[in-house]
Design goal:
heterodimer; A: MetI-like fold; B: 242 residues; alpha/beta; six-stranded mixed beta sheet; 9 helices
């Protein structure tokens, strides 16, 4: 046993980098995919709508832990390939992000009245111009609070990656706490770090909401 | 040649046949008002003219072109046909100026430098030059509808369609919108209106078209039609609309 020192604090901060890295990876790949899913969900082709809905439903129904296990332990069994942990984790978090963000954004797009598309079409705008300049800005504003809510979930959800050996913030907390026998102090610090990560997001979303809603 | 030629148009929503063979010509510069009871097919007909709705059979030509044939230039066509809706449908996230200049800029009708001047010009024509920097929700219903009209005018359309544009307005705001439309009529704009404003139909329109059960039931100049309706359906409609 040893006492809690600066080294322990540093190791918590070091682990924080993994937490951030996992979130960034999940968003980098998951957000574009989510946009695709959302657009598929409002497509005029019923087959595409149905397919996207089924995909989203499936991913949302599987626990995040299940996704992680599937891509790390399942791939060698089903496909006979050993996937590096970082790939498995990235794929799992990407799909998780895509499914939830996709459905959130779909809701935002649906909440903009059909007549807004029509008004754009009647002025001679292309479907893409209607989406880009009329629908998307309004949908973004409507989707912002649940989007940030999901980001906060995602940040905390990265702790599950510790199961596959990633020493991110929660796992580092475990290690430090075991070494120092100072669980209260350690976990309070861990909690504070998660809080520090999530708070700016919430504040940023609030200011963005105000800015996007200049009319009020 | 008529600007708008409608030939035997049929349109069904589910099991309801809304248009049962409508034919109608509108000449350039003409003001045609379509009246009739709810469900008579007037709004549907209007929406068919700029291809917001498809037709099941028959054809509609505007400036000689088939509206419902596969049109690679549907966008260009729509730039020349303005439509104003009952619910205004302004873009709530954009200021009045941007509401007006968005489409002209994106379609390349004007450049960035001319945008402000264009917005000022069309807003002046609807009497709202001072609202150029307002948000839509800061305006009254009548003002919003006038901005919607200005937004169409910015595309310099050859034909304007009005779909019950005063029906959502408080009674005291109807007049300001009708005045703008009257001014447009005087400037020679070809206009097709669906309206419940019988006074406007009587005083401004060149021709009244009475639709009933998905057909053009009766049509003619307003003075004649209102004084001597030929069909009992029109007579009873005029009586009930008073």
């Amino acid at each position: 046993m040893r006492s809690f020192t600066l080294i322990d604090l540093v190791s918590l901060f070091a682990a924080l980098r993994w937490t951030v890295a996992l979130v960034v990876l999940a968003l980098a790949f998951g957000a574009p995919l989510a946009l695709g899913l959302a657009l598929g969900r409002i497509s005029r082709f019923s087959g595409l709508r149905w397919g996207m809905a089924a995909l989203i439903q499936t991913i949302q129904s599987v626990p995040l832990l299940g996704l992680l296990f599937f891509f790390y332990f399942g791939m060698p069994v089903f496909l006979g390939i050993q996937v590096p942990a970082i790939i498995a984790v990235t794929v799992a978090y990407t799909l998780y992000t895509a499914a939830f963000l996709g459905e959130i954004w779909r809701g935002g797009l649906d909440a903009v009245k059909q007549a807004q598309w029509e008004a754009g079409a009647c002025l001679g705008l292309s479907a893409w111009q209607q989406f880009r300049h009329i629908i998307a800005p309004q949908a973004l504003r409507l989707s912002l609070p649940p989007t940030v809510g999901f980001l906060v979930q995602l940040i905390k959800g990265t702790s599950l990656a510790s199961i596959l050996g990633f020493v991110e913030l929660a796992r580092a907390g475990q290690v430090v706490s075991a070494a120092t026998f100072q669980p209260l102090l350690t976990y309070a610090l861990v909690a504070a770090l998660y809080f520090a990560l999530c708070l700016p997001l919430t504040l940023w979303s609030r200011s963005l909401e105000a800015r996007l809603d200049g009319s009020r | 040649m008529a600007l708008v030629e409608i030939r035997d148009v049929h349109k069904t929503f589910g099991k309801v046949e809304v248009l049962k063979g409508v034919s109608l010509d509108v000449r350039e510069g003409e003001i045609v008002t379509i009246i009739g009871r709810s469900g008579s097919g007037k709004s549907t007909l209007l929406r068919c003219i700029n291809a917001l709705e498809s037709v099941d059979s028959g054809e509609i030509r505007v400036e000689g072109r088939h509206v419902h044939a596969k049109m690679p230039d549907l966008k260009q066509f729509r730039q020349r046909v303005g439509i104003v809706f009952q619910a205004f449908n302004l873009f709530p996230h954009l200021k009045v100026e941007r509401n007006i200049t968005l489409a002209p800029l994106l379609t390349g009708r004007i450049g960035k430098s001319g945008a402000r001047a264009l917005a000022e010009d069309v807003l002046t024509r609807v009497g709202l030059a001072d609202k150029i920097d307002a948000w839509p929700e800061q305006l009254s219903g009548g003002q919003q509808q006038r901005v919607a009209i200005a937004r169409c005018l910015a595309m310099a359309p050859h034909l304007m369609l009005f779909d019950e544009v005063t029906s959502a307005l408080d009674p005291e705001l109807v007049g300001e919108v009708l005045k703008v439309m009257e001014a447009m009529a005087k400037q020679g704009m070809t206009m097709i209106l669906v309206t419940h404003e019988m006074g406007f139909a009587r005083n401004v329109a060149n021709r009244i078209v009475f639709m009933h059960q998905g057909r053009v039931w009766e049509q003619g100049p307003p003075a004649k039609l209102f004084a001597n309706p030929e069909t009992p359906e029109l007579a009873s409609f005029i009586a009930s609309a008073k």
